[in-house]
Amino acid sequence: MEKIIVRGGNKLRGSVKVEGAKNAVLPVIAASILAEEGTSTIHEVPALADVYTMKEVLKNLNAEVSYENGQFVVDATKELKTEAPFEYVRKMRASFLVMGPLLARIGKARIALPGGCAIGSRPIDQHLKGFEAMGASVEIGNGFIEASIDGRLQGAKIYLDFPSVGATENIMMAAVLAEGTTILENVAEEPEIVCLANYLNAMGAKVRGAGTGVIRIEGVDKITAADHTVIPDRIEAGTFMVAAAITQGDVIVEGAVAEHLRPLIAKMEEMGVGITEVSNGLRIVGPEKLKAVDLKTMPHPGFPTDMQAQMMALLLQAEGTSVITETVFENRFMHVEEFRRMNSNIKIEGRSAIITGPNNLQGAEVASTDLRAGAALVIAGLVSEGITRVTELKHIDRGYVDLAGKLFALGADVERIQQVEENVEEAAASLETAASLSLNTSTN
Ligand SMILES: CC(=O)N[C@H]1[C@@H](OP(=O)(O)OP(=O)(O)OC[C@H]2O[C@@H](n3ccc(=O)[nH]c3=O)[C@H](O)[C@@H]2O)O[C@H](CO)[C@@H](O)[C@@H]1O
Ligand SMILES: C=C(OP(=O)(O)O)C(=O)O
C-alpha cells in the first residue's frame, strides 16, 4: 500500500510553483469537443489522475487526443460517439461535463448517472433543468441519463436555484451552439468559469458576463478549435499557503493569483499570517502564534469549500475557538474523524465544526477521505509529534501533482513510500485492491 510519511517539525522555506488548475482544465477539455474544425492545444495541463480520466472519456467519444509535457491536444473533427460509461463517471464526476458539448454538437448524449460521493449526494438537477429549458428531452433509466434534441438547442432564460459550478459550465457549453440567446442567471462566478468562457470565446463563441452572476450567450453556427492556457490552480496554491503558515515558514507560492484567492488571504491574514504580493506570486510568512477565526464556505467570492479541510488543519494550531460552517456540501467533514486520531479537539454540530486550539497534534495512521482531506492530513503531519502516515493516496493524486515531492523540496520531512505489508491478511487485501485498481485504471 502506498503511503505518505510525514515527520513533523520542519519549517518550510523556498519557492513552490503551482500547476494549471484541475477545476479549470476539466471543463476546458470537455469544451474542446465542440470544435468541428481544427485542433486545440491546451497549455499548462497538470499530470493528474483526473486529466488522464478525461483523456479516456474523449478517446471513447472518438476524439483524437494526445497529452505530453503539459500540452493536451484535441482533434474532435471526426464523427463523435454519444456515450460516457459509468467506468469514467464513477472515477470522476467532471466526466458529466461532456453532456452539454455533445448535446450542442450532435444533439444526443448518454452519460452514466454520477451518483453520490464522499462529500455529499451531489445531484445534477440544475444541469438537466438547463438542457430541458433549451428544448432537450431528458430521460433517466438503467443508471444513465439520456438527453436529445431534434435539430438545434434553443436559446432560453435559465435561473439556477444554486450557483452550481458544474451546471453553469455544462449549460454554458450547450448554449454556445444554440439558436438564439441564452441568459443564465444566478450562475457560479468562480475564476474557472471565466477561464472556460475565454476558451469558448477563442473558439468563436459569444459568451459575455462570465465572472458575474449573469451570463449571456449568443449562439453561433460553428465552433473552431483554438489554443488556450489554463489558469493557475488556486486550491493547490492555497494548500501550499496553509502548509507554509502552519510551519511558521517563509515560502513564495509561484503563480498564485491574489485576485483568485481573496477569501483565503483575508482569513489567513485575520489569523495573523503575513501575506504579500510579489512579482511571481505570493509570499507567505507564518507567525509564531495563530489566532482563531470563524469561517463559512460559500460559492465564489465566498470562502471555497475546497480549502475547508486545509484551513481546519491550520485552525487546529490557533489559540482559542474557531467555527467552520460548511454550506456547500452536506457531508464534507469526513476528515474530522481522522484529525481526531491525531489528538485534536473538534466537535461537530450540524453543519459546523467547532475547533478548540491550539492542539498538541500527534502523528497517526490516517486515511484521505477526499483529495482535500488528504492534503489537510499531510499538512497536519507537518506540525505533529512523531510520524504521520497518510493512506488512500488515490484521492490526493486526483488533485495534486507530487504533493510529497513539492513539500520535501520546501524542507519538509515527507516521503511517499510503497509499504511492504506486515502480515499475510494485509498483503492479500492489498493485492486484491491493487488488482481491482489496475482493472479500473487499465484504460488510463
Ligand atoms: C471539477 C470541479 O470543478 N469541481 C468543483 C465544482 O464541483 P461541482 O461543479 O460538482 O459543484 P457544484 O457547484 O455543482 O455543487 C455545489 C452544490 O450544489 C449542489 N448541486 C449542484 C448541481 C446540481 O445540479 N444540483 C445541486 O444541488 C451540489 O450538490 C452541491 O451541494 O465546484 C465545487 C464547489 O465549489 C468544488 O468543490 C469542486 O471542486
Ligand atoms: C471536490 C473536488 O473535486 P471534484 O468536484 O472533482 O470531486 C475538489 O477539487 O476539491
TrEMBL record:
<dbReference type="GO" id="GO:0051301">
    <property type="term" value="P:cell division"/>
</dbReference>
<keyword id="KW-0573">Peptidoglycan synthesis</keyword>
<keyword id="KW-0808">Transferase</keyword>
<dbReference type="Pfam" id="PF00275">
    <property type="entry name" value="EPSP_synthase"/>
</dbReference>
<keyword id="KW-0131">Cell cycle</keyword>
<dbReference type="GO" id="GO:0005737">
    <property type="term" value="C:cytoplasm"/>
</dbReference>
<keyword id="KW-0963">Cytoplasm</keyword>
<keyword id="KW-0961">Cell wall biogenesis/degradation</keyword>
<protein>
    <recommendedName>
        <fullName>UDP-N-acetylglucosamine 1-carboxyvinyltransferase</fullName>
        <ecNumber>2.5.1.7</ecNumber>
    </recommendedName>
</protein>
<feature type="binding site">
    <location>
        <begin position="122"/>
        <end position="126"/>
    </location>
    <ligand>
        <name>UDP-N-acetyl-alpha-D-glucosamine</name>
    </ligand>
</feature>
<dbReference type="GO" id="GO:0071555">
    <property type="term" value="P:cell wall organization"/>
</dbReference>
<dbReference type="GO" id="GO:0019277">
    <property type="term" value="P:UDP-N-acetylgalactosamine biosynthetic process"/>
</dbReference>
<dbReference type="GO" id="GO:0008360">
    <property type="term" value="P:regulation of cell shape"/>
</dbReference>
<feature type="binding site">
    <location>
        <position position="306"/>
    </location>
    <ligand>
        <name>UDP-N-acetyl-alpha-D-glucosamine</name>
    </ligand>
</feature>
<comment type="pathway">
    <text>Cell wall biogenesis; peptidoglycan biosynthesis.</text>
</comment>
<feature type="binding site">
    <location>
        <begin position="22"/>
        <end position="23"/>
    </location>
    <ligand>
        <name>phosphoenolpyruvate</name>
    </ligand>
</feature>
<dbReference type="InterPro" id="IPR013792">
    <property type="entry name" value="RNA3'P_cycl/enolpyr_Trfase_a/b"/>
</dbReference>
<feature type="active site" description="Proton donor">
    <location>
        <position position="117"/>
    </location>
</feature>
<dbReference type="InterPro" id="IPR036968">
    <property type="entry name" value="Enolpyruvate_Tfrase_sf"/>
</dbReference>
<comment type="function">
    <text>Cell wall formation. Adds enolpyruvyl to UDP-N-acetylglucosamine.</text>
</comment>
<dbReference type="InterPro" id="IPR050068">
    <property type="entry name" value="MurA_subfamily"/>
</dbReference>
<keyword id="KW-0670">Pyruvate</keyword>
<feature type="binding site">
    <location>
        <position position="93"/>
    </location>
    <ligand>
        <name>UDP-N-acetyl-alpha-D-glucosamine</name>
    </ligand>
</feature>
<feature type="modified residue" description="2-(S-cysteinyl)pyruvic acid O-phosphothioketal">
    <location>
        <position position="117"/>
    </location>
</feature>
<feature type="domain" description="Enolpyruvate transferase">
    <location>
        <begin position="6"/>
        <end position="407"/>
    </location>
</feature>
<dbReference type="InterPro" id="IPR005750">
    <property type="entry name" value="UDP_GlcNAc_COvinyl_MurA"/>
</dbReference>
<keyword id="KW-0133">Cell shape</keyword>
<feature type="binding site">
    <location>
        <position position="328"/>
    </location>
    <ligand>
        <name>UDP-N-acetyl-alpha-D-glucosamine</name>
    </ligand>
</feature>
<keyword id="KW-0132">Cell division</keyword>
<comment type="similarity">
    <text>Belongs to the EPSP synthase family. MurA subfamily.</text>
</comment>
<dbReference type="InterPro" id="IPR001986">
    <property type="entry name" value="Enolpyruvate_Tfrase_dom"/>
</dbReference>
<dbReference type="GO" id="GO:0008760">
    <property type="term" value="F:UDP-N-acetylglucosamine 1-carboxyvinyltransferase activity"/>
</dbReference>
<dbReference type="GO" id="GO:0009252">
    <property type="term" value="P:peptidoglycan biosynthetic process"/>
</dbReference>
